[in-house]
């Protein structure tokens, strides 16, 4: 099953610029899921994690930010996380490439000045074609195996949140980022503390030996050379 929903929004205010859904009668995208996608896009700020997965029932929303744009998709929970983020990475390359091709160096101002939703909806067929490439998860993984391996460690570290934590409880995604940064700092402090304790232990172990050797050397020096 390919990604069920894909949206590209302006990072500053969550304005949707492009959106597409996979036509599948068996797995329809509900109005509730579309609203959740909209709420997530509005919650993301420049201080938010650059990549995040958000669980919603049997589905998962994934988003990534790049060049002041937010790229979001929704998949079934069984869809591999690595493949979902690889898909978003390719969508970002595709959309940014089309913006540069259409507007050249002024593409950023075109995005900033967009006053209505879905200003670039004409990119929708391009996203649909890319979605079809990711219909077969195994084929997508084989075609991009090297990149999947390169991104493995990064993908494993991406935070996962529940949709209720972010939306129903009013949690800001920039707060999620600050918590993540705080944990990283605490980890660094712990490593430094561990190194300091190691040096102290070595000093206690070898300090007397070094001090004794220095004293003997000093005595011999004064005895034979002074």
Automatic annotation (TrEMBL):
Localization annotation: Endoplasmic reticulum membrane; Golgi apparatus membrane
GO CC list: endoplasmic reticulum membrane; Golgi membrane
GO biological process: endoplasmic reticulum to Golgi vesicle-mediated transport; protein transport; retrograde vesicle-mediated transport, Golgi to endoplasmic reticulum
Keyword Cell membrane included in the entry's annotation: no
Chain ranges of the Longin domain: 7-93
GO molecular function: SNAP receptor activity
Keywords: Coiled coil, Endoplasmic reticulum, Golgi apparatus, Membrane, Protein transport, Transmembrane, Transmembrane helix, Transport
Chief subcellular location: endoplasmic reticulum
UniProt-recorded name of the protein: V-SNARE coiled-coil homology domain-containing protein
Native source species: Grammatophora oceanica
Classification lineage: Eukaryota, Sar, Stramenopiles, Ochrophyta, Bacillariophyta
């Amino acid at each position: 099953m390919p990604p069920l929903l894909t949206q590209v929004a302006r990072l500053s205010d969550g304005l949707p610029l492009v959106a597409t859904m996979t036509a599948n009668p068996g797995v329809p995208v509900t109005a509730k899921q579309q609203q959740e996608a909209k709420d997530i896009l509005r919650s993301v700020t420049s201080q938010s994690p650059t990549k995040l997965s958000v669980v919603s029932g049997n589905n998962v929303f994934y988003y990534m930010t790049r060049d002041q744009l937010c790229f979001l998709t929704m998949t079934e929970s069984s869809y591999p996380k690595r493949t979902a983020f690889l898909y978003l990475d390719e969508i970002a390359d595709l959309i940014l490439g089309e913006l540069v091709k259409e507007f050249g160096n002024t593409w950023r101002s075109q995005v900033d000045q967009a006053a209505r939703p879905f200003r670039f909806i004409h990119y929708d067929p391009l996203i649909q074609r890319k979605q079809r490439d990711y219909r077969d998860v195994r084929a997508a993984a084989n075609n991009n195996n090297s990149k999947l391996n390169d991104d493995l460690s990064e993908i494993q570290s991406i935070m996962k949140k529940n949709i209720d934590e972010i939306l129903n409880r009013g949690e800001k995604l920039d707060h999620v980022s600050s918590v993540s940064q705080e944990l990283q700092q605490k980890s660094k402090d712990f490593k430094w503390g561990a190194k300091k304790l190691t040096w102290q232990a070595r000093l206690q172990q070898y300090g007397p030996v070094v001090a004794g050797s220095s004293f003997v050397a000093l005595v011999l020096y004064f005895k034979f050379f002074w």
